[in-house]
User: Fold this.
Amino acid sequence: MTRRYDLHTHSRLSDGILAPAELVAHARTRQVDVLALTDHDVTDGLAEAAAAAAACGLTFVPGVEISVTWGNQTVHIIGLRVDATAPDLQHGLARLRATRLERAREIDRRLQKKRITGALEGAQALCHGATLSRTHFARFLIQTGHAPDLRRAFRQFLSHGAPAYVPVQWAGLEQAVGWIGGAGGQAALAHPARYKLSPGKLRSLIGEFKDCGGAALEVISGTHSAEENRRFAALALRFDLRASVGSDYHGPEKPWVEVGRLPPLPAGCVPVWQDWKE
Ligand code: AMP
Ligand code: MN
Ligand code: MN
Ligand code: MN
Assistant:
């Protein structure tokens, strides 16, 4: 029997909804065999998830999703099978979280100009870990009646071009891939169809990622269309990268994404787990 993999999920330690143990229990009900927790810029949920997975016989992969600035674009790099005790990784992630706090103060100032007060405290009250995300601001805006749902909270206030969008310098691409390698892990370029890049720029990004030691492309993503999945399968082959699969599950708040609800890898792809000994 083929095993069901989901190598990209979030818990409430970053911008997901479920506690790590709840996420593992949910993945179990969804017949997932191998699960990675990949919270944004933090590894604090991994121990709880690993213990819950061991208790129910699910194979757990310790992961992280690192915020990176490439050119003037934010891209996300997934680290899989990372040793969370690696010092360079932890120092790097701590710096990114400090940047997030500075950004949050500026988001708060910009929302105040729109006569929305208490946003920083409100977002922090909804945050259960060390990673303060725009998603926490979006939830605050919904809670206080300033937006009807997440999509519109982002579009009206938080996305690029909106009044409370604050540009940030995240980690460098080579730096993030280096932290993951230094932690014994494999780097995967997350949801490659989500970036607003021309086909040529996207190939440059993938080429540079590969040159810095990147291992895999997230060919199958819960945020990709079927056509996008096929397109990135072809690009993985062309760049001799392995293929990863991940839902990018954040919780029941985004019902269009579900843990383990992913099509199989197209023929010819080499799965990122090819050499894993579990
Ligand atoms: P941050 O890393 O704090 O800048 O926040 C980025 C996160 O916000 C992503 O990981 C998504 O979970 C979420 N996000 C970004 N854009 C949207 C959107 N348009 N609708 C809903 N969630 C979004
Ligand atoms: Mn997120
Ligand atoms: Mn992402
Ligand atoms: Mn994600």
Summary: Residues 65, 76, 190-191 surround manganese (II) ion (ligand 3) (CB under 6 Å). The first strand starts at residue 5 and ends at 6.
